[in-house]
Amino acid sequence: MVNLFPATPLITVVTVAYNSIDTLEKTIQSVMTQDYGSMEYILIDGGSTDGSIDMIKKYASRLSAWMSEKDNGIYHAMNKGIRMASGEWICFLNSGDVFANTSILNKTVQSITRLSGSPQIVYGNILVRNPDGTLTERIAKEPCNIHRMYFCHQSAFVKTSLMKNYLFDERYKFSADLKFFKQCYYNRQAFIHLNLPVVIYDTNGISNTRREDGLRDNIAVVKATDRGLKKYLFLLRLYFVIYWRRLTGKKQKCKQEVK
Questions:
Q1: CATH number, domain 11-203
Q2: How far, in Å, CA of 26 to CA of 23, rounded?
C-alpha cells in the first residue's frame, strides 16, 4: 500500500465475521487494496466452521492482528476489535461490505485534515447495490438525534479513544451502535458529515434481514437514552412502523393466498 500523504494519522479498520466465506474475501481485498499506508487491519472471527479460517490464513501476513473464537454476538466481537486497536481513528467494515473505492481512506483523511475544531466522529454516505447491479448513493442526514440511525455505521470514522471510553453495549443485539451514537450526541461530541460515499453496503446484514427485531432493539435504546416529549414521539414512530409492517405484511399474504 502506497501512502500518498505521509504525515497522516493511523487508521484502524476492523472486520467482524462469522461463517461468511462467500463474502469475507471481497471485504478483506477491499481493505488491502487501499492506497493509504498508515493503516492497521484487525479481523475478528466468531469461530467459523465454513472454511473461513483457512481463507483468513492466506492473508494473515498482511493482517495487523486476527483471532477466531466464539463470541456473544456482533457487538461483543466489535468490542474485541476496539480493545485491540491502536489507531487514532477506527472504522468497521464487516463481512460483505466493501469500500467505495481504493482511495476512500486517503480521501477521508484529507477531508478530516481540512476540518476546523476537533471532530470526534465523521461519517459519509453509502452506495446501495440495486437488483440490476447499479449503485445508488444514499445520502446521510446531517447530525441530529432521532429514533434510528441517520447514517450507516460502516461509513463512520470515530476517534479510537472515544470508542474505548464507551464501547458498544452488548445487551443490545441489533442497535448497540444506535445507543453509542446517541450517547455521543447527548454528551456533545462533535459529529461531522462528509458528503462522499464511503462504502458499498451489504443489505443482507443482520439488521436488515431481521428488521422487526432491530426495531424493537431501537425501542429499548430510546427508552434508555431519550427523555421528555422527544422520547415519546420517537417511541410512537417506532411502534407505528412495527404496526404498519405487520399490517402490510398481512395484506401481502392475503393477496398471495387469493392467487
A1: 3.90.550.10
A2: 6
* SS3 assignment for the chain: CCCCCCCCCCEEEEEEECCCHHHHHHHHHHHHCCCCCCEEEEEEECCCCCCHHHHHHHCHHHCCEEEECCCCCHHHHHHHHHHHCCCCEEEECCCCCEECCCCHHHHHHHHHHCCCCCCCEEEEEEEEECCCCCEEEECCCCCCCCCCCCCCHHHEEEEHHHHHHHCCCCCCCCCHHHHHHHHHHHCCCCEEEEEEEEEEECCCCHHHHCHHHHHHHHHHHHHHHCCHHHHHHHHHHHHHHHHHHHHHHHHHHHHHHHC
**Residue with the three cell numbers 467505495:** 100
pLDDT in tens, 179-222: 999 999 999 999 999 999 999 987 765 555 588 999 999 999 99
Q: What is the Cα–Cα distance from 100 to 224, expressed in whole angstroms? A: 34
- What gap in Å lies between CA 182 and CA 149, rounded to an integer? 9
Tell which residue, 153, 160, 155, 195, has the closest CA to residue 174.
153
| Gap between the Cα atoms of 33 and 104, Å rounded | 10
pTM for this model (two decimals)? 0.90
pLDDT in tens, 123-178: 999 999 888 889 999 999 999 999 999 999 999 999 999 999 999 999 999 999 99
Phi, psi of 10 (to 5 degrees): -75, 130
